[in-house]
Amino acid sequence: MNYVKTLGAALLASVAFVSAAAACEVTLRSSDTHPEGYPTVVAVQKMGEMLEERTGGKLCIEVFHSAQLGQEKDTIEQTQFGVIDMNRVSLGPFNNIIEETQVPSLPFIFRSTDHMHRVMDGPVGQQILDAFSDHDLVGLAFYDGGSRSFYNSQRPIRSIEDLAGMKFRVMQSDIFVDMVSALGANATPMPYGEVYSSIQTGVIDGAENNWPSYDSSGHFEVAQYYTLNQHLIVPEVLVMSKTSFDKLSAEEQDIVRQAARDSVPVMRDLWQEREKVSEQRVRDAGVEIITDIDKTPFIEAMVPVYQKYVTSPKLQQMVADIQATE
Ligand code: GTR
């Protein structure tokens, strides 16, 4: 009896689900490397709810989480081609394509998350969003990516000297390769999805990321030393394929832009909560966390990286604008 009741309820639920999805004329497919429940995934799902409500059920979003549509670099290309409608990615993998994205990806460019928010919510952030339009994309909003620090499987890193000769995975961006080299270590750019097994098999010694990614990827299981040197605060971005965007009416385009903006505070709240939860989970797992680290030598070592990348007057102005932002 109970079984029949449960079955009936399940059937009803699936019918309801099908009809709700069917009511949407357009379901935008959005990619994310992170799993269900991760702040970026939930924020885009919330944006989808806003969209559905504000378009009377015409536009919806389906988030393909857990890299179902591929690793970030490949999904970016597919979004440019219009195969994927939307994408939530780090700015890192855009660095080699869109020079403006290099600036917020520079090591130690932001003094804090609050500073990053003020910059990305202001004219510099708008300038970066606008830059996507020359690359078949529409920049919609920035999300948080926390601060990134090194973790490895070999030993606790307590100073810059301890990094010497170690091999770290970085996102596929030249800046990060040069950043790691300038610290005296070796960089291997590779997709996020290959990091776990590469650490496990000793192809690399470690990687670098924020608390939620270190936790949700399970990297802490294979790299048990985490040094909070916080060399990067790289914002994440939500972009839409220009091909998909152009199919919408002007009114719908405004609704999409606004819903993306409205998903930002939702994301920031989720992020703050998740950082604490992830930190606790990782600490409970017995990872060695090194907090007592002098950042000054790390900051000083970045001079050649700035010299190499901040060369055009445009990027120099952007760096100056960020530094002048309170
Ligand atoms: C995460 C970020 C992802 C991805 C990943 C990586 O923090 O949210 O978009 O860039 O890092 O290291 O590849």
TrEMBL record:
The entry's keywords: Periplasm, Signal
BP-aspect Gene Ontology terms: transmembrane transport
Signal peptide residues on this chain, from the entry's feature table: 1-20
Family matches, as InterPro entries: DctP_fam, TRAP_DctP, TRAP_DctP_sf
Subcellular location: Periplasm
GO cellular component, one term: outer membrane-bounded periplasmic space
Main localization, broad class: periplasm
Gene3D superfamilies: Bacterial extracellular solute-binding protein, family 7
GO MF term set: carbohydrate binding
Protein name (Swiss-Prot/TrEMBL): TRAP transporter substrate-binding protein
